Amino acid sequence: MKQCVFLFLFALSGLFAQVPDYFPLVSGSTWVYRSTNGLNPLTIKVGAPSEFKGQTYLRLEGYAEAPYFVRQTEQGNFVYWDSENQTESPFLTFRDGEFKSVVGQCRQTGRPEARPAFYKGPVGVVDNARVIRYSPGICADAGLTSETFAPYLGMVQRTETSFTGERTLDLIYAQIGGITYISDAGVSFSITLGAIPNGIAARLVLHNRTGQELKLVFPSGQRYEFSIRDAQGVVRYTWSADKLFIQEITELKVTGEEVWNEVLPAANLPAGVYTVEGRLAIQDIGGKKFSAIGTINLP
User: Which residues pair with 112 in a beta bridge?
Assistant: First the structure.
């Protein structure tokens, strides 16, 4: 698991600046968190950019009760556009210093720990995570306790306090800058995308780290499917639309890693941001499907 996570983070690091990015803000990115009590899962999304006084901000939804327009500074911290006061205010600080939290109504302040932290959770092991601790604020039994961030991956854990006890939210899915990572009981499925002349190079990777054989059953000769959607969600291309497949049930047994590569034609697509979904054309395994989504900006 550790190797997989670091390979994933290494791939992401090439997309961003050399300053460690603990919250990679890329339009179209999504983080999904699972709660320890099974209630109120959390989803964070990055929307379209907007410009205020010459600076570009990205709309961040789900992190707090209301959306915020956020950008990263050269120091690796984050600020948001305060429309009421027409100025920037601290959003998250990963260097020395205290900041006012925008989450909840408890008027809490956050302060990053000085030393890197160790994190182990559904997405794997990270030994250089950054933890932010929060003061109680004006609420005696509610509010944030801590947030843990991994470089080039974002927030991997949030702990909260309530009158019913502490709740922990752990990251189980992330789609950032064209790379999707899903973790579920030692099996992960990811997609990577790259722009090439007149096309998109797509790569699907299935990792099985359970130590047990994973059997995939295909109802035909088709092993995978790709679809491309534009910014409005309209399907502009389906890989299998002009192909024929043998109508015969086949099986594939995966004990480690299986990789599928495909070049998707894009010569007829105008410049813009597109969403590419890649999935395995298998029969459901106990309701489980292998599907991953990435975004790409075509020139």
Answer: 132
